[in-house]
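Data deposition worksheet. Section B asks for the primary sequence of the deposited chain exactly as it was used as input, without tags or linkers unless they were present during the calculation. Section C holds the resulting structure in token form. Section D is free text for depositor observations; keep each observation to a single sentence. Incomplete worksheets are returned to the depositor.
Section A, Depositor: J.P.
Section B:
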Amino acid sequence: MSGPDLLRTEPPAPPRRSLSEAVSALRRFVRAQPLGAVALVLIVVFVLAAVLAPWLAPHDPLEQFRRNILEEPSGEFPLGTDDLGRDVLSRTIHGARTSLLIGVATTGISLVLGTTVGVVSGYFGRAVDVVIQRVMDAVQAIPGIVLLLFIAVILGPSVRNTVIALTVVITPSFNRIARGETLRIREERYVEAARATGAGTPRILALHVLPNLFASVFTLGSLIFAGVIIAESALSFLGIGAPPPTPSWGAMLSEGVRYVERAPWIILVPAALLSLAVFSFNLLGDACATTSTPACSGPRSTGRRGAGGRGGARLRASRRA
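Section C:
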């Protein structure tokens, strides 16, 4: 092999973790953050309930039992019925599916868009960075709730439009984190070494930048997910979120508030589950922000040390500010 070929040798790819290493990382996370582990279990339960909703719900959430309007909890209707005779338990289970679906779609799309734009902005800089950041500044200059309500009202009530409205409001948050981390990572010595050995921009971004963004982005995503669930419920409560008769926790609260004295069971369980879901995601996000375990920090690139801890510390500092 000639001298020039040796100089262009690509840096080794980061090693892949085996299943045993992933299990060990999860055990360390459980020991270090027991409350975070409890939150993770609760989230898994919510996800399973949403996925298995058609089999767990005792009745069709849209079926109306006209002879059982506002019926108290019983053997046939464990959580009672609402003002249209629909089973509250079935609607609550399917409402979890609606809320989590919107949360996953919104957070996922915002994460991909915000991270991609932030990495491009931070890595290339100059005119690209200026243009992208001015657009993000314009979006963030408008109060989030005002922008969210404006977009939701313009687009109309539907699950798709709710996801679009929330994505527009949330994407700049991921962009800020991704850009800030990229500005720091691109100056690291292992990135300079990769450039010196002839690694192209796509390879550097794929093997060195993106893996080291995972800790901060994942932590922010878990925290934002809780906010998305609250925002979706608020929009549904106002009648501009998931359209009726789609079961949604926010819509159930809006429908049941009129009967809170006569039939409090209509809103008690949806309100409790909404609070528990938000608490679980916030708890998991805080746990990931205060630990450097690989369970939350994700894959790491060669030459990188303490990625998760520094990213989590930076995110906690920004939250306190």
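Section D:
Confidence is low (pLDDT under 50) at residues 1-8, 298-321.
Residues 201-238 form the longest helix (38 residues).
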